[in-house]
Amino acid sequence: MTSELEARLLEQIQAIPIVDIHTHINPRKALATSLADVIGYHYYTELANSAQYRPEFAEESDPLEIVSQVLERLPLIANTVQHDWLLVIGEEFLGIQRADWGTVPAPELFERAQKAIDAPGYVRGVLDRSGIRRIYMTNQCDEDLSGIDRGLFIPCLRT
Predict the structure, then answer these.
(1) What tens digit of pLDDT does each residue of 13-62 get?
(2) Residue 68 CA, distance from chain mean position
(3) For the segment 104-139, what is each residue's pLDDT rounded down to a tens digit?
(4) Strand partners, 136
(5) H-helix or E-strand spanning residue 8
(6) Got the DSSP string for 38-59?
(7) What b-and-e string marks burial along 82-112, b requiring 16 or more CB atoms within 10 Å of the CB?
């Protein structure tokens, strides 16, 4: 494929708005509030723990400890698509370069991500850069949906 064709195709793909048709996102806390929310997502904790099992791993509640435990196992999951997703999320949204994941201590990565997350306009920036236009939720029939942005979050009954 030529570079011109690749660039044209990428431009067209990036112009497509994203409509998430199945999600378990809490509309009141839709974005990660810390690096632990990202790296503590089950994709990473389950992969990391399956790569190097320790029964106490899942019991951690301290955000920095969760990040530290996954980071120490990150090289063991480097052959997964989830690993690449993390590197892209770090670069695009958290101010963490690819090489930093293996060389920068967990507290510094945590702090760097927090600075990005706490910056004014972060939420709007994530939505704009991601191309997300609608999120179809999977919610319970008795779930309180008052006060959510119905322009972004579309309730869909979980069955």
Answers:
(1) 888 887 766 666 777 777 888 999 999 888 888 888 888 887 776 666 88
(2) 17
(3) 999 999 999 999 999 999 988 988 888 888 888 887
(4) 154
(5) helix 3-14
(6) HHTSHHHHHHHHHHS--TTGGG
(7) ebeebbebbeebbbbeeebbeebebeebbeb
The amino acid sitting at 146 is S
Query: Which residue reads 């920036």 in tokens?
Result: 125
pLDDT digits (tens, 9 = 90+) for 77-110: 999 999 999 999 999 999 999 999 989 999 999 9
The pTM score is 0.77
Nearest alpha-carbon partner for 127 in 18, 21, 35, 10: 18
Phi/psi at 42 (5° precision): -60, -25
- In single-letter form, the type of residue at position 59 comes to E
Across 31-43, b (16+ Cβ under 10 Å) vs e yields ebebbbbbbbeeb
Number of H helices, E strands in the chain: 8, 3
In angstroms, rounded to a whole number, what is the distance separating the alpha carbons of residues 24 and 45? Answer: 17
